[in-house]
Amino acid sequence: MSEIPSSRSTLYAPLYVITAAVLWGTTGVAVKLSNVADTSPLMPAAARNLLATTLIGVYLLLIDRRALCIKPKDICSMALLGVVGVGLCQLSYIFTVTQAYVGVAVLLQSLAPTFAYAWALIKHSEKFSKQKLSALALALGGGATVVLGQGGWGGAISPTGLVSGVISGLCWAFYSIYAKSLMHAYSSWTLLFWGNAFASLAWLFILPPQSLIGWCITKPNALVASLYLAVACTAIPSWFYLKGMRTLTPSTAGIIGAFEPVAATLLAYLVLHETLALTQIIGGFVIIVALILLQCTTVRREAITEPSAVITA
User: Fold this and answer.
1) CA-to-CA distance for 33 and 43, rounded, in angstroms?
2) Would you say residue 178 lies in a domain?
3) Which of 16, 85, 155, 213 could form a cystine bridge with 244, CB 3.0-4.6 A?
4) In a domain, 71, yes or no
5) Total of domains in the chain
6) Cα–Cα distance between 28 and 5 in angstroms, integer?
7) 297: domain range?
8) What is the distance between the alpha carbons of residues 120 and 313, in angstroms, rounded to a whole number?
9) Residue 130, domain member (yes or no)
10) Structural domain contains residue 311
11) Can you give the pTM of this predicted structure?
């Protein structure tokens, strides 16, 4: 059954993506509270994908086994989505975190909608829009202001760190674009399961299974934190994001996802009692203005013109 665009889509789709951004924004707070990344950030990243794969797989076995099925000709497509769009995206992001502040890594990954929009213009799948370009510029500018309010760039970021940050943005743009193309044949749950499954296989080439098991057993709070990251920071927000992308283009969904640094900064202030500078507040308002501009000029049009997906789960 295909989706019928309605006026509700213009409200629900952005809310789905904003919900995803807020949940993703809790990642840093969860990691800091649990102290699970003080040895190697690769461990929680790998654990979250493995646990997400397991939990989603069990859920689908109980609720809808058909969502686990993919056509043999699409195995390579799912592998590409998982290895590049999920695994390499996380790996490059984590490496960037080791080279600069977390905010800088988030900002570089937030270049994803820029890459997605550029690709859409090249492929002629979207028309040039001054309103969308303005919203994109405001979102990036607001994100940069939030980062600067957290303490700037944290010194000179290494060239390799800069490259890895840009790669993480490219990988996230790829995930959005490629997942959008697969949505015409598969549900969001199918994409989530196989994306995380192939990402997990990629992680196992880097981290032996015994090292992950040992880390979960010996590290305090590791298992609890990994479960939270798998459910609240991976499975649920990714489902919301993909649900929103059924109506929105990847570039628009990416711009709305720029709300993540605002959520992360506010949560850090409320939970970790980190400082909240005036520049960060200004940056947050700039991002909100970008989202309002996008809602008024672009979202409604996309809700009507975007082709509906075959499966709506």
Assistant:
1) 16
2) yes
3) 16
4) yes
5) 1
6) 35
7) 7-305
8) 26
9) yes
10) no
11) 0.82
